[in-house]
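Narrative of accomplishments. A recurring question from our advisory board has been how the design workflow behaves on a single, concrete structure rather than in aggregate. To address it, we present the structure tokens for one chain from the evaluation set, followed by the sequence designed for it. No filtering or post-editing was applied between the two.
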């Protein structure tokens, strides 16, 4: 039997240590009738208070050791504990049904958890994990159970668990906790996100680690390949120690580039920027030496809540980001909801083809009040830094003109109100629909910049749903058709003296980078942890040769031929 267990590579790096299997305490809940609901209410309130006290301590610890953004998860947990929808529902149940607090809490929280879990949206599903985490904490107090404490571990260990809650993850001390592996979870679960920013190697979603690994076994967590090696042989240990040393050496090399400009071997400069979802992502952005923000996906501000964010709330978020970037460019994309990103509270009808439907700019031009509020917040924030506005999913000039008109109207209105707005505000569009790529010369006259959204551009060009496994073979970033479209967009921008960037995943892809440099892309925007490897790769490439490589690639027959061309060039 193989001693390798496969999972999802959630956080890069390699950990070698003894396993510590985190056992869940038994939450056995007996539903009982009670004589004195008032006493039961008091038990519930006491447990709530204890849980709040604990969370406040963990929050402060997380803030001190891990930074403000990690601590916010616990602020969110505290909010769950004060949420009347949950708390009052439990109290009502105790009063009306005369049942014990444990069973009332279990029933109400299970109802909320399954409601969130059944939402067709990854972000909402993660909220179910938050409610589960918080409810267990309160239940633990009601049942008088010991809450497990990871903070007590004081030898080098790899944690094995069914799942790690955010509060578990925040207690991990990287001095002793070398890595972790879980049965469940995905790359977007909170614990995976936290492990990346804490740089603890992690493999999640293995389905079986807790069954396959007893505590005390030596294991290797390979967060680069997404594998766990159980009870490795001496040869395997040596091989992984070497892999770890190579990785550390590579990281040390990359780290030297944090404050460097991004330059090719022959001295050409491009901008390496980061994609963010919330202001909390800024720590990673700054630690990884981003030269700007190339895509701020504002839809996350609208998600995980049950009403629209106010102008003030949005203004604060946008202002924070531009201020923290201290004059570096920040491209903020207006709301891109629809497709796979839903806002349940907008109550939009289900569509047969959501990716081809009522989404992004289409929705904003129809729901004008939502759009106006966002434009005002963006315009106000523009006075505090180098903010650029970008419209998503533009398919026609009419859409662009209408969006720009609305922006102009709001700008004049704000100026009339005496509010300052930047005079140098650039306005650009995402190029993610083939019609816009093909007619890029027309659009280039009416925008300040393009940012190519290849995640969507590829799916629309190849007519292959980016979420559908069965047609994933057609999702081909290196297809000559895609390269030709990118070429058209970059040339059209340059002809009008404008810049062209890319914020789709392709911008950080090792094979694509030489091609994109060769095509003359000006700005590459990617996840923060890809920036230093990309900067290092670019410093070894010569832009002059790459133009020829890109020409050849556009004339190749297939995606595979393009890949071979790049690999041959790299050797
Ligand atoms: C894209 O389509 O390439 C893009 C960056 O937008 P999103 O992934 O948010 O659709
Ligand atoms: Mg897109």
């Amino acid at each position: 039997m193989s001693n390798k267990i496969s999972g999802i590579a959630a956080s890069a790096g390699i950990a070698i240590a003894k396993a510590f299997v985190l056992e869940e305490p038994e939450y056995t809940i007996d539903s009982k009738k009670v004589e004195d609901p008032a006493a039961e209410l008091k038990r519930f309130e006491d447990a709530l208070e204890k849980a709040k006290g604990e969370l406040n301590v963990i929050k402060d610890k997380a803030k001190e050791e891990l930074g403000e953004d990690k601590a916010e998860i616990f602020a969110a947990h505290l909010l769950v504990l004060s949420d009347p929808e949950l708390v009052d529902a439990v109290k009502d149940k105790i009063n009306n049904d005369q049942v014990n607090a444990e069973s009332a809490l279990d029933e109400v929280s299970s109802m909320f958890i399954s409601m969130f879990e059944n939402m067709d949206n990854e972000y909402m599903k993660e909220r179910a994990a938050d409610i589960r985490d918080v409810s267990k904490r309160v239940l633990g107090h009601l049942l008088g159970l010991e809450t497990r404490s990871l903070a007590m571990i004081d030898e080098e260990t790899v944690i094995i668990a069914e799942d790690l809650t955010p509060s578990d993850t925040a207690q991990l001390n990287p001095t002793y906790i070398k890595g972790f592996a879980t049965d469940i979870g995905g790359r977007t679960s909170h614990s995976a996100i936290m492990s990346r920013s804490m740089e603890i190697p992690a493999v999640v979603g293995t389905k079986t680690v807790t069954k396959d690994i007893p505590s005390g076994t030596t294991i290797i967590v390979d967060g680069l390949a997404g594998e766990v090696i159980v009870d490795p042989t001496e040869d395997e240990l040596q091989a992984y120690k070497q892999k770890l040393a190579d990785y550390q050496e590579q990281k040390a090399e990359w780290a030297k580039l944090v404050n460097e400009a991004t330059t090719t071997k022959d001295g050409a400069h491009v901008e390496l920027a980061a994609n963010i979802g919330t202001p909390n992502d800024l720590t990673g952005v700054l630690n990884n030496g981003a030269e700007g923000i190339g895509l701020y996906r504002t839809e996350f501000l609208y998600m995980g809540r049950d009403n629209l964010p106010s102008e003030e709330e949005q203004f604060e978020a946008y202002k924070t980001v531009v201020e923290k970037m201290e004059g570096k460019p920040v491209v903020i994309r207006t709301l891109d909801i629809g497709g796979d990103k839903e806002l349940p509270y907008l109550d939009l009808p289900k569509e047969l083809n959501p990716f081809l439907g009522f989404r992004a700019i289409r929705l904003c031009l129809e729901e004008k009040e939502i759009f106006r509020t966002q434009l005002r917040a963006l315009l106000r924030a523009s006075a505090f830094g180098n903010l650029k506005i970008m419209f998503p999913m533009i398919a026609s000039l009419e859409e662009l003109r209408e969006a720009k008109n609305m922006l102009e109207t709001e700008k004049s209105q704000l100026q009339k109100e005496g509010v300052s707005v930047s005079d140098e505000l650039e306005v650009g569009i995402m190029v993610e629909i083939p019609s816009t790529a093909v007619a890029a010369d027309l659009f280039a006259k009416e925008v300040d910049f393009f940012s190519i959204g290849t995640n969507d551009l590829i799916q629309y060009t190849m007519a292959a749903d980016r979420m559908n496994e069965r047609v994933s073979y057609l999702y081909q970033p290196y297809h000559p058709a895609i390269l030709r479209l990118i070429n058209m967009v970059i040339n059209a921008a340059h002809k009008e003296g404008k810049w062209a960037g890319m914020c789709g995943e392709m911008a950080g892809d090792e094979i694509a980078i030489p091609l994109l440099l060769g095509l003359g892309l000006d700005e590459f925007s990617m996840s923060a942890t890809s920036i230093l490897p990309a900067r290092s790769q670019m410093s070894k490439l010569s832009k002059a040769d790459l133009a020829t490589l890109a020409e050849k690639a556009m004339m190749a027959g297939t995606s595979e031929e393009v890949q071979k061309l790049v690999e041959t060039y790299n050797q």
